[in-house]
Design brief:
This protein has one domain: 2-methylcitrate dehydratase PrpD, CATH 1.10.4100. 62% of the residues lie in helices and 0% in strands. The chain has 13 helices and no strands. Helix 4 packs antiparallel against helix 5, helix 5 packs antiparallel against helix 6 and helix 7 packs antiparallel against helix 9.
Length: 289
Protein backbone atom coordinates (compact mmCIF):
# COMPACT_ATOMS: atom_id res chain seq x y z
CA UNK A 1 0.00 0.00 0.00
CA UNK A 2 1.18 3.52 -0.74
CA UNK A 3 2.28 5.79 2.10
CA UNK A 4 0.17 8.61 0.62
CA UNK A 5 -2.97 7.12 2.11
CA UNK A 6 -4.09 8.66 5.42
CA UNK A 7 -7.14 8.20 7.62
CA UNK A 8 -8.29 11.71 6.83
CA UNK A 9 -8.02 11.06 3.08
CA UNK A 10 -9.94 7.81 3.51
CA UNK A 11 -12.61 9.73 5.44
CA UNK A 12 -13.03 12.19 2.57
CA UNK A 13 -12.98 9.57 -0.20
CA UNK A 14 -16.04 8.49 -2.16
CA UNK A 15 -17.68 5.39 -0.76
CA UNK A 16 -16.79 2.59 -0.65
CA UNK A 17 -13.48 3.58 0.90
CA UNK A 18 -11.77 0.39 -0.23
CA UNK A 19 -12.27 1.23 -3.91
CA UNK A 20 -10.55 4.57 -3.38
CA UNK A 21 -7.70 2.93 -1.43
CA UNK A 22 -7.18 0.33 -4.16
CA UNK A 23 -7.27 2.88 -6.99
CA UNK A 24 -4.98 5.30 -5.16
CA UNK A 25 -2.46 2.63 -4.34
CA UNK A 26 -2.46 1.26 -7.88
CA UNK A 27 -1.85 4.73 -9.31
CA UNK A 28 0.99 5.48 -6.91
CA UNK A 29 2.70 2.08 -6.76
CA UNK A 30 2.11 0.89 -10.30
CA UNK A 31 0.88 -2.43 -8.94
CA UNK A 32 -2.06 -3.84 -10.86
CA UNK A 33 -5.19 -3.84 -8.73
CA UNK A 34 -6.06 -7.41 -9.68
CA UNK A 35 -2.76 -8.57 -8.21
CA UNK A 36 -3.74 -6.97 -4.90
CA UNK A 37 -7.17 -8.61 -4.96
CA UNK A 38 -5.68 -12.03 -5.67
CA UNK A 39 -3.30 -11.57 -2.75
CA UNK A 40 -6.19 -10.60 -0.46
CA UNK A 41 -8.13 -13.71 -1.44
CA UNK A 42 -5.10 -15.83 -0.55
CA UNK A 43 -4.80 -14.10 2.81
CA UNK A 44 -8.45 -14.68 3.61
CA UNK A 45 -7.99 -18.37 2.75
CA UNK A 46 -4.97 -18.55 5.07
CA UNK A 47 -6.95 -16.86 7.83
CA UNK A 48 -9.71 -19.41 7.35
CA UNK A 49 -7.25 -22.28 7.57
CA UNK A 50 -5.59 -20.82 10.65
CA UNK A 51 -8.96 -20.49 12.39
CA UNK A 52 -9.89 -24.05 11.44
CA UNK A 53 -6.64 -25.50 12.75
CA UNK A 54 -6.72 -23.37 15.86
CA UNK A 55 -10.22 -24.44 16.82
CA UNK A 56 -9.46 -28.10 16.12
CA UNK A 57 -6.44 -28.33 18.42
CA UNK A 58 -5.85 -28.09 22.14
CA UNK A 59 -2.14 -28.87 21.84
CA UNK A 60 -0.05 -26.57 24.01
CA UNK A 61 2.42 -24.09 22.62
CA UNK A 62 6.13 -24.71 23.07
CA UNK A 63 6.05 -22.80 26.37
CA UNK A 64 2.94 -24.56 27.63
CA UNK A 65 1.27 -21.24 28.44
CA UNK A 66 -1.49 -21.37 25.79
CA UNK A 67 -3.00 -23.70 23.22
CA UNK A 68 -6.36 -24.80 24.60
CA UNK A 69 -8.17 -21.49 25.03
CA UNK A 70 -9.82 -21.19 21.61
CA UNK A 71 -11.11 -24.75 21.56
CA UNK A 72 -12.23 -24.48 25.18
CA UNK A 73 -14.27 -21.37 24.44
CA UNK A 74 -15.66 -22.80 21.20
CA UNK A 75 -16.84 -25.99 22.89
CA UNK A 76 -18.16 -24.30 26.04
CA UNK A 77 -21.85 -23.39 26.54
CA UNK A 78 -22.74 -19.90 25.35
CA UNK A 79 -23.63 -18.66 28.83
CA UNK A 80 -24.37 -15.09 27.64
CA UNK A 81 -26.39 -16.25 24.64
CA UNK A 82 -24.14 -14.02 22.53
CA UNK A 83 -23.03 -16.13 19.55
CA UNK A 84 -21.34 -13.24 17.74
CA UNK A 85 -19.25 -12.36 20.79
CA UNK A 86 -18.22 -15.97 21.32
CA UNK A 87 -17.39 -16.53 17.65
CA UNK A 88 -15.27 -13.38 17.34
CA UNK A 89 -13.31 -14.21 20.48
CA UNK A 90 -12.79 -17.87 19.58
CA UNK A 91 -11.66 -17.07 16.03
CA UNK A 92 -9.17 -14.48 17.28
CA UNK A 93 -7.67 -16.82 19.88
CA UNK A 94 -7.56 -19.71 17.41
CA UNK A 95 -5.32 -17.72 15.10
CA UNK A 96 -2.98 -16.57 17.85
CA UNK A 97 -2.72 -20.02 19.39
CA UNK A 98 -1.90 -21.43 15.97
CA UNK A 99 0.86 -18.83 15.81
CA UNK A 100 2.08 -19.90 19.26
CA UNK A 101 2.32 -23.48 17.95
CA UNK A 102 4.48 -22.14 15.10
CA UNK A 103 1.73 -22.75 12.58
CA UNK A 104 1.12 -20.62 9.51
CA UNK A 105 -0.73 -17.34 10.07
CA UNK A 106 -1.17 -13.98 8.34
CA UNK A 107 0.65 -11.19 10.17
CA UNK A 108 -2.12 -8.60 10.33
CA UNK A 109 -0.20 -6.42 10.79
CA UNK A 110 2.05 -8.45 13.15
CA UNK A 111 2.13 -12.05 14.37
CA UNK A 112 1.24 -10.98 17.89
CA UNK A 113 -1.86 -9.17 16.63
CA UNK A 114 -2.72 -11.66 13.89
CA UNK A 115 -6.04 -12.76 15.37
CA UNK A 116 -7.82 -9.43 15.56
CA UNK A 117 -8.78 -8.98 11.90
CA UNK A 118 -9.84 -12.59 11.24
CA UNK A 119 -11.64 -12.69 14.58
CA UNK A 120 -13.61 -9.54 13.86
CA UNK A 121 -14.06 -9.61 10.08
CA UNK A 122 -14.51 -13.34 9.48
CA UNK A 123 -16.42 -13.69 12.74
CA UNK A 124 -18.96 -11.05 11.72
CA UNK A 125 -19.20 -12.44 8.19
CA UNK A 126 -19.89 -15.98 9.42
CA UNK A 127 -22.40 -14.72 11.97
CA UNK A 128 -24.31 -13.00 9.17
CA UNK A 129 -23.84 -15.76 6.57
CA UNK A 130 -21.70 -13.64 4.21
CA UNK A 131 -19.27 -15.31 1.81
CA UNK A 132 -15.53 -14.73 1.63
CA UNK A 133 -15.68 -12.82 -1.64
CA UNK A 134 -17.50 -10.07 0.25
CA UNK A 135 -14.47 -9.75 2.52
CA UNK A 136 -11.92 -8.98 -0.19
CA UNK A 137 -12.49 -5.24 -0.50
CA UNK A 138 -12.82 -4.71 3.27
CA UNK A 139 -9.42 -6.40 3.54
CA UNK A 140 -8.05 -3.87 1.07
CA UNK A 141 -9.36 -1.11 3.30
CA UNK A 142 -7.80 -2.74 6.36
CA UNK A 143 -4.45 -2.72 4.60
CA UNK A 144 -4.89 0.95 3.75
CA UNK A 145 -5.63 1.80 7.39
CA UNK A 146 -2.54 -0.12 8.47
CA UNK A 147 -0.42 1.82 6.03
CA UNK A 148 -1.88 5.13 7.21
CA UNK A 149 -0.91 4.27 10.78
CA UNK A 150 2.57 3.09 9.79
CA UNK A 151 3.35 6.51 8.32
CA UNK A 152 3.70 7.87 11.86
CA UNK A 153 4.64 4.86 13.99
CA UNK A 154 6.41 1.57 13.33
CA UNK A 155 3.81 -1.13 13.83
CA UNK A 156 5.61 -3.11 16.50
CA UNK A 157 5.44 -3.48 20.25
CA UNK A 158 9.15 -2.72 20.44
CA UNK A 159 8.60 0.65 18.78
CA UNK A 160 5.44 1.86 20.49
CA UNK A 161 4.00 -0.69 22.89
CA UNK A 162 1.06 -2.96 22.24
CA UNK A 163 -1.01 0.06 21.18
CA UNK A 164 1.08 0.04 17.99
CA UNK A 165 0.28 -3.62 17.34
CA UNK A 166 -3.11 -4.53 18.75
CA UNK A 167 -4.29 -0.92 18.45
CA UNK A 168 -3.39 -0.91 14.77
CA UNK A 169 -5.01 -4.28 14.15
CA UNK A 170 -8.16 -3.18 15.97
CA UNK A 171 -8.31 -0.02 13.85
CA UNK A 172 -7.81 -2.02 10.67
CA UNK A 173 -10.48 -4.51 11.69
CA UNK A 174 -12.94 -1.82 12.74
CA UNK A 175 -12.71 -0.08 9.37
CA UNK A 176 -13.08 -3.39 7.52
CA UNK A 177 -16.14 -4.49 9.51
CA UNK A 178 -17.72 -1.06 9.05
CA UNK A 179 -17.36 -1.28 5.28
CA UNK A 180 -18.57 -4.89 5.24
CA UNK A 181 -21.76 -3.71 6.92
CA UNK A 182 -22.31 -0.88 4.44
CA UNK A 183 -20.64 1.99 6.25
CA UNK A 184 -19.52 5.12 4.43
CA UNK A 185 -15.89 6.14 4.00
CA UNK A 186 -16.36 8.64 6.82
CA UNK A 187 -17.76 5.98 9.12
CA UNK A 188 -14.89 3.62 8.31
CA UNK A 189 -12.25 6.23 9.18
CA UNK A 190 -13.98 7.13 12.43
CA UNK A 191 -14.37 3.46 13.36
CA UNK A 192 -10.61 3.07 12.94
CA UNK A 193 -9.97 6.20 14.99
CA UNK A 194 -12.24 5.10 17.84
CA UNK A 195 -10.64 1.66 17.95
CA UNK A 196 -7.15 3.17 18.02
CA UNK A 197 -7.84 5.96 20.50
CA UNK A 198 -9.10 3.48 23.07
CA UNK A 199 -5.85 1.51 22.99
CA UNK A 200 -3.55 4.51 23.54
CA UNK A 201 -1.09 3.77 26.32
CA UNK A 202 -1.40 -0.01 26.10
CA UNK A 203 1.96 -1.53 26.99
CA UNK A 204 3.65 -4.54 25.40
CA UNK A 205 4.60 -6.90 28.24
CA UNK A 206 4.74 -10.48 26.92
CA UNK A 207 5.66 -13.02 29.56
CA UNK A 208 9.09 -14.40 28.77
CA UNK A 209 9.10 -12.43 25.55
CA UNK A 210 6.66 -14.86 23.90
CA UNK A 211 3.60 -13.48 22.10
CA UNK A 212 1.31 -15.75 24.12
CA UNK A 213 0.45 -14.14 27.47
CA UNK A 214 -1.30 -11.74 27.39
CA UNK A 215 -1.35 -11.67 23.59
CA UNK A 216 -3.77 -14.54 22.88
CA UNK A 217 -6.55 -13.21 25.11
CA UNK A 218 -5.73 -9.64 24.13
CA UNK A 219 -6.56 -10.45 20.51
CA UNK A 220 -9.91 -11.83 21.63
CA UNK A 221 -10.67 -8.67 23.59
CA UNK A 222 -9.64 -6.30 20.83
CA UNK A 223 -11.42 -8.19 18.07
CA UNK A 224 -14.59 -7.47 20.03
CA UNK A 225 -13.34 -3.92 20.54
CA UNK A 226 -13.09 -3.54 16.76
CA UNK A 227 -16.64 -4.78 16.27
CA UNK A 228 -17.84 -2.36 18.96
CA UNK A 229 -16.09 0.50 17.18
CA UNK A 230 -17.78 -0.48 13.92
CA UNK A 231 -21.17 -0.54 15.63
CA UNK A 232 -20.63 2.95 17.03
CA UNK A 233 -19.51 4.32 13.68
CA UNK A 234 -22.44 2.71 11.87
CA UNK A 235 -24.70 4.48 14.36
CA UNK A 236 -23.13 7.78 13.21
CA UNK A 237 -20.97 8.26 16.29
CA UNK A 238 -17.59 9.78 15.54
CA UNK A 239 -14.23 10.32 17.16
CA UNK A 240 -14.12 13.83 18.62
CA UNK A 241 -10.41 13.96 17.73
CA UNK A 242 -9.86 13.81 13.94
CA UNK A 243 -8.62 10.38 12.80
CA UNK A 244 -5.11 11.38 11.75
CA UNK A 245 -4.63 13.28 15.01
CA UNK A 246 -5.47 10.09 16.89
CA UNK A 247 -2.60 8.36 15.08
CA UNK A 248 -0.30 11.25 15.98
CA UNK A 249 -1.28 10.98 19.64
CA UNK A 250 -0.66 7.23 19.66
CA UNK A 251 2.75 7.70 18.08
CA UNK A 252 3.70 10.38 20.60
CA UNK A 253 2.68 8.17 23.52
CA UNK A 254 4.59 5.25 22.03
CA UNK A 255 7.78 7.27 21.86
CA UNK A 256 7.32 8.37 25.47
CA UNK A 257 7.01 4.81 26.78
CA UNK A 258 9.99 3.47 28.70
CA UNK A 259 11.78 0.55 27.10
CA UNK A 260 10.59 -1.70 29.92
CA UNK A 261 7.06 -1.43 28.50
CA UNK A 262 7.99 -2.04 24.87
CA UNK A 263 8.28 -5.78 24.29
CA UNK A 264 11.42 -6.21 26.38
CA UNK A 265 9.70 -8.40 29.01
CA UNK A 266 11.21 -6.07 31.63
CA UNK A 267 7.94 -4.61 32.88
CA UNK A 268 4.24 -5.24 33.37
CA UNK A 269 2.94 -8.82 33.43
CA UNK A 270 6.35 -10.16 32.40
CA UNK A 271 7.79 -9.03 35.74
CA UNK A 272 5.15 -10.59 37.99
CA UNK A 273 6.33 -13.51 40.13
CA UNK A 274 4.57 -15.95 37.82
CA UNK A 275 5.92 -14.24 34.74
CA UNK A 276 9.48 -14.40 36.07
CA UNK A 277 9.04 -18.05 37.05
CA UNK A 278 7.87 -18.95 33.53
CA UNK A 279 10.82 -17.06 32.04
CA UNK A 280 13.27 -18.89 34.28
CA UNK A 281 11.69 -22.23 33.43
CA UNK A 282 11.91 -21.57 29.71
CA UNK A 283 15.51 -20.40 29.96
CA UNK A 284 16.37 -23.51 31.97
CA UNK A 285 14.79 -25.67 29.29
CA UNK A 286 16.79 -23.92 26.59
CA UNK A 287 13.74 -22.41 24.90
CA UNK A 288 14.49 -19.10 23.19
CA UNK A 289 11.93 -16.28 23.37
Amino acid sequence: MSSGITLDSIMQAPSPASAWVLATDSAESGLDSEVVLIAMRRRIAEMRDSIRRGLASSAPSITGMVGWNAQGLWDAPDVLNAPLLKRVQAYAMAVNEENARMGRIVAAPTAGSAGTIPGALLGVADHLGLDDEQLVMPMVLAAGVGKAISRQMFISGAAGGCQAEIGSSAAMAAAAVTELLGGSSRACAHAAAMALMNTIGLVCDPVGGYVEVPCVSRNAFFAVHAVSSAQLALSHLESFIPPDEVITAMAQVGRMMPLELRETAEGGLAQTPTGLAVTARMEGAGVNG
